[in-house]
Structures are given as C-alpha cells and as structure tokens.
Design brief:
Keywords: DNA replication, DNA-directed DNA polymerase, Nucleotidyltransferase, Transferase. The chain has 17 helices and 5 strands. It is elongated, with a radius of gyration of 25 Å. It has helices spanning 3-11, 26-39, 43-49, 60-67, 93-100, 122-130, 144-154, 161-171, 175-188, 197-204, 212-220, 224-236, 243-261, 268-275, 282-291, 294-311, 322-334, and strands at 18-23, 50-54, 77-82, 106-113, 132-135. The protein is 56% helix and 9% strand. The chain has a 5-stranded parallel sheet, with helices on both faces. The protein folds into 3 domains: 3-135, Rossmann fold (3-Layer(aba) Sandwich), CATH 3.40.50.300; 141-204, Helicase, Ruva Protein, domain 3 (Orthogonal Bundle), CATH 1.10.8; 212-334, Zinc Finger, Delta Prime, domain 3 (Up-down Bundle), CATH 1.20.272. The protein starts with a helix and ends with a helix.
C-alpha cells in the first residue's frame, strides 16, 4: 500500500490491527502516525484507550501487555510506538507471539524511522501478514519538484514548473521542511492564482533572478553577462548560495545535456521522461545541446568535477575564495 491509500483507509476507519512504518524518509511515517494518533479516537476516548510511547523508554513486554487489553470507551484501543527503531528488536519474541494471535480491537503502530527494517526477520513477515507495512523511501533530488506539484494539486493549487523546481533545488529533500513552506505559501497566495517564482522569492526568500536555474539558463544561452552577474550575486551571498549546491546543480544540468545528446527520441514527452524533468524545460536542453556539442559537454563535466574538488580544498592552487573559483569555472564553461 502507498501513503495515500493508507491515509484514505484511516479516514474511513478501515483500520489494520498492526502497522509497521519504516524507512529513511520520516515525513511519510509521521504523516500516517499522526493520522492514527489524532483521528481514530476523539478526545474523550483518548484518555482511556490511547497510549503513545517512545522506543527508548519502553520494551516489548510493556507494549504487548498494553496491546492485549481491550478498549474501555470505544471500538478500538490505539497504541503508537514512536522512534520504534530504539526498541531492542533482538528481544522481539513476545511481539512475534502476539502477531500470531493479535487482539482484533487493538491498533498497534510502530514508527521505525531513519532506516529500513530487516525484511529477513520473522517479525517483518508476520507484520506483513497481520497488518500494514510501509517502507518510506527518500525522494531522489529530481523527484522533489514533482512531489511539490502533486502536493499542491491535491489541495486544488497550481504551481509553475520553474517555481517547483526552484523550491526543490534550494530546500533539498527534507519533505517536512518543504511541506512547512508550502503551507506558508498557500496561506499567503489566493487559491485561484498559480504560484510563480516571484511568489517563491517573496515568501521563502529565494531570489527568482539570481539562482542556480537562472545560471544554468544563462549558460545554456551562452549569456556571459548574465552568468557572471549571477556569480557575483552568489559571491556576495554565500550562505544563501553555498558552493556545493551550485556545483551540484551545474553537474546535474550538464549531465542531462550530455544525456540529451544521446537520446534516440528527442520529442518533448520522451525527452522529459528520460531526463526526469517537466516538459516545460525540454526546449532549454535542446537549445543548450546546440550550444554545447558532445565533446564540449564532456569537457565541461570534467571541469565541474575538478572545481568540485577545489571547492573542498583539494588542488586549489592560487584560488581559495569560492567566488573566484566559481568565476573561473564559468569562464571555462563558456570558453
């Protein structure tokens, strides 16, 4: 099952007797755990039939003892074990026995964060058989913009592809952080209005004119004046534009340009799918590929790797300032 189907079932009160939520992305785990904790029982029932514990403060003996009780004031008893990765899972014999003979009126949830549960364990297989298991995987960098668009679409909102990409690039893959920013934007922008890069600048503080996307676009067009203006802005605002983010973005961009060169089908839909970008951006990659042939693109990727090492203090030579390093890199890209 995926996150949305689980949440839909919880909303309909179609509850499983046990949930194992595990994986490296805490956002989806928290989303489902919060839904169980806050919506299954009302406030009056929670005092009698809901227990929330933390893995480091409890053990399986206590959890199973609670799970075997019957509800007093409602149809279900809810037990949420947060930070369940801190339980002593090598001592989970009692849990295994419980899973073979569960209490049907108990909803027992384990929120196992920041790592994958060992799928070879008997406990895992018993949980799969008895209830719901969800692996909450980290989103890849190139999937974040799409996730942002999907989240807003679910609320009846629209965002321009460039604005979604801008948010994804600067906020990274921390979905909780992104979600907080999305909530803020939705409060400040009318529902009928498409969210633009200007809105991102106003509400989050990311410059719509001086960012890595505008730098990539300037390079694609071989617009040296604009490219160096952006680099000067980055040098003056290093905390807002850290070198690793800029270098990483350039590396990703030119790798996709190289990939575009080798695409057998360069139609908009096919190219967008193969490059992992919104169709809106395909024209730019087509334009960039005309300005940078295969050989030059290979050279640029080599330069980017070289300057990535220099930015980390290796083979620096006479340049030590990040602004100077980036200026020289842009010069090499354009010449």
């Amino acid at each position: 099952m995926n996150t949305q189907s689980i949440l839909s079932d919880i909303k309909k009160k179609k509850l499983a007797p046990v949930y194992l939520l595990h994986g490296e992305e805490p956002y989806f785990i928290d989303l489902i755990a919060d839904a169980i904790e806050h919506t299954v029982l009302d406030d009056a029932q929670k005092g009698f039939d809901q227990t929330v514990v933390y893995g480091k403060d409890t053990d399986f003996s206590a959890v199973i003892s609670m799970a075997k009780r019957y509800p007093m004031m409602s149809d279900h008893q809810v037990i949420v074990v947060k930070e369940a990765q801190n339980l002593k899972w090598k001592d989970d014999d009692l849990l295994q026995k419980y899973l073979e003979n569960i209490t049907p009126t108990t909803v027992l949830l384990f929120a196992y964060k920041y790592g994958k549960f060992d799928k070879r364990k008997k406990t895992y297989k018993l949980m799969e058989k008895a209830g719901v298991v969800l692996e909450s995987a980290k989103l890849y960098d190139d999937k974040v913009a799409g996730w942002i668009s999907e989240q807003l679409a679910a609320n009846g909102r629209k965002i321009h592809p460039q604005a979604a990409a801008l948010m994804g690039e600067y906020l990274g893959t921390d979905l909780s952080k992104i979600n907080n920013e999305l909530e803020k934007i939705q409060l400040n922008i009318p529902k009928e209005k498409e969210i633009t890069a200007a809105d991102i600048e106003q509400n989050i503080g990311i410059s719509k004119d001086f960012n890595v996307f505008e730098l990539n676009t300037a390079l694609a067009k071989r617009n040296a004046v604009k490219a160096f203006q952006i680099v000067d802005y980055f040098a003056a605002n290093p905390k807002s534009n850290p070198m690793p983010v800029v270098i990483g973005s350039l590396g990703t961009y030119f790798t996709k340009i190289l990939k575009y060169h080798y695409l057998p089908d360069k139609s908009s839909a096919a190219a967008a799918k193969q490059l992992g970008v919104h169709p809106f951006f395909v024209k730019e990659y087509e334009f960039a590929a005309r300005n940078f042939n295969r050989r030059k693109t290979f050279d640029i990727i080599h330069h980017i790797k070289e300057f990535d090492l220099k930015s980390k203090g290796m083979n620096v030579g006479h340049l030590t300032d990040s602004g100077d390093l980036l200026t020289e890199l842009i010069y090499k890209i354009l010449n």
